[in-house]
Structure prediction request, 153 residues.
Amino acid sequence: MFILKVVEALERAEVPYAIVGGYALALHGAVRGTVDVDIAIALDAGAFKRCEEALASIGLAPRLPVTAEEVFRFREEFIARRNMRAWSFGNPANPLEVVDILITEDASRLRTVEKKAFGRVLKVAAIEELIAMKRKAGRPQDIEDIRALERLR
Prediction:
């Protein structure tokens, strides 16, 4: 399963992470279809570099021609001036394998919970954290996700 490959690669590289987005909703019990795996990592240069290497080790490449160093260094500018919220990776051989690294969230500051799925324990952003992220994003799908998450409280 793709999400396990992603999590295992990040763990091998010692990248602090939290699963967020659609997979996080599903792991909490709110059904929502999604293809991409959304991850928050620690907002430090080392974590960005190790993340890039970890994802490359499982065949993923950045969708934009920017390096981990550039994303980390210009993160604030990318967010403010280019509306870039995620550093996206894809598998050129399999378009269903997509990972978005949220550059707006710091995994080292997110409250997480452990969820058992697929025969192992996964680190997932807590419901309150997901709701806060979704409120900031404010897209129609995020509003629906908030409703689903609030029913789970």
